[in-house]
Specification:
Length: 76
């Protein structure tokens, strides 16, 4: 799942995928703004057929936060 999220982020933010790690802070390290994060999450929702509740959005700080949430959704 990390590789999938990394590819989406790299493309959306025009970043070298090799610079993105699970510990990367989406805003501070990758330079994403609120619109970038919203677009990322909309893409993830579309690709994986899930809905990300608003209260979960507030908790997404690092790439690992997004991956952990998606991994949990796959087991539900």
């Amino acid at each position: 799942m990390f590789e999938e999220v990394k590819k989406i982020l790299a493309k959306q933010l025009r970043r070298d995928p090799e610079t993105i790690t699970p510990e990367s802070d989406i805003k501070k390290d990758l330079g994403a703004d609120s619109l970038d994060i919203l677009q990322l999450l909309m893409r993830v929702e579309d690709d994986y057929g899930i809905v990300i509740p608003d209260q979960e959005l507030a908790g997404f700080r690092t790439v690992a936060d997004v991956v952990t949430f998606l991994d949990k959704q796959k087991t539900v």
